[in-house]
Structures are given as structure tokens and as C-alpha cells.
Design a protein that fits this description.
With 229 residues, the chain is α+β, with helices and mostly antiparallel strands. Helix content is 36%, strand content 28%. Strands 1, 2, 3, 4, 5, 6, 7 and 8 form an eight-stranded antiparallel beta sheet that branches. A hairpin with a 2-residue loop joins strand 5 and strand 6. The longest helix is centred in the C-terminal third of the chain and has 24 residues.
Length: 229
Amino acid sequence: MVRFDLDTLTRELSLIHDLANGFLEPESSHRLEAARWRLKGLPRDSPTTRWEIDTPLRTCRSLGEYAQDQQGEFTVQANITTIWEVTRHGARELVVRDNVSTKIAITNNDGEIARWTMDMAAVQGAPGCGLHAQIKDHPEWFPKGFDVPRIPVFIPTLGAVLEYVLGELFQRTWTEHVAGHKLANSWRELQRRSWQRWLAWQHTIVHASAVSPWLDVKAIGCAGLNDHT
């Protein structure tokens, strides 16, 4: 199980909501804010709580801005959904009970052209790295039931995933926007703490490696992440 501070998660969503203004479609911006309030209002000590966004958050269209020279061939849009299977303990503790999965589907005028998930497998014995990305259900390359590769990633909270996607689709404009935003310092400090937690956890595993660093990171899943807060 992985523990999160509920106030930190909702603060992250509040910050990314404001930062992403102009990069998300207006209806999606409202949907994100509504989801934040649902997260704040999760019932306490229920063993079966699910927090989700099943109607996609849609970015504005990227007119080739995913390329460094801003001249990419495709006009694309990201569609993001998420499911968190959690239990809330008390006022502030949120425990991932089973799985967190955020799906990113990239579309253009012809339909879906790419899809992947960014996941947190919190159950003991889950195969692969506990924090990972996967390319899912491609009919030719990654058929359903073939769940490799599981590519290691940062702690994939929804706010962190949204920043990742926006930074990919809007290579220059997102960076410039965040750097000049009035909330830049608050966002940077919150994300710095998350990254320090993740890096300290990985350093601890690697330092105490018994087999090889990668195999130990893979075997441990998400165990020990709670020791780095």
C-alpha cells in the first residue's frame, strides 16, 4: 500500500488546474475542479472507495507543438482518464488499496493514434516496477494480456501526469507558461518534494541491493515508498 497526504493531493490538483488554464478545454477544466472536490469529500474508512475521472480531461489541440521546432506533422489532443482504488483514514491519509491507473489517449482528426497508461501497482507481488508506464491494447504490437514492458516512471499522481502530458504536447509554450506563472514557486516546491521522495526511495533500494539494482527495484514494487515522505 502507498500512503498519500490528502491535503497535498488536493493542493496539487488546485495548482495544476490554475496552471493549465488555457491548455485544457474549458469543460475539462471544470471537470478537473469537480474531481478535486470529490477527492476532498471521499468517505472515511470505507474499504471500497474509488475516485475516478471517467469522462476524459481534454487538452487543447497541439498544432505540431510536440516537436522541439514546433513543426510536428500532426495536430493532436490528449484525452486523460484516471482511476484510484483507495481507502481514506482519518482526515488526511489516503492509502492506495490496489491500483492507480491514468490513461492517456492521443487523438487527431482521424481518431486515436496513441495510448498509454501511467500506473501505481500498490499490491504486494505485482509484477514489474511498482510505478510504471505501459502501452496498452494495441491490436498489433501490444495485444491485450501482454503487459510488458512496464517502463519505470516518477510517482504518477494526476497532477504530475497532467504536467508530463502538457510538457510533451506543448514543448516550448508550457515551459514558458509555467516559468512565468504566479504559482510557479508553489508548484515547483510541491513537485520537488514528490521527486525527492521518489529519488530517496530508489536510492535506498539501490544502496541495499542484494541481486542487482534493477531487479531489486522491480521486486520491491512500491514497498518502502511510505518511509520517504
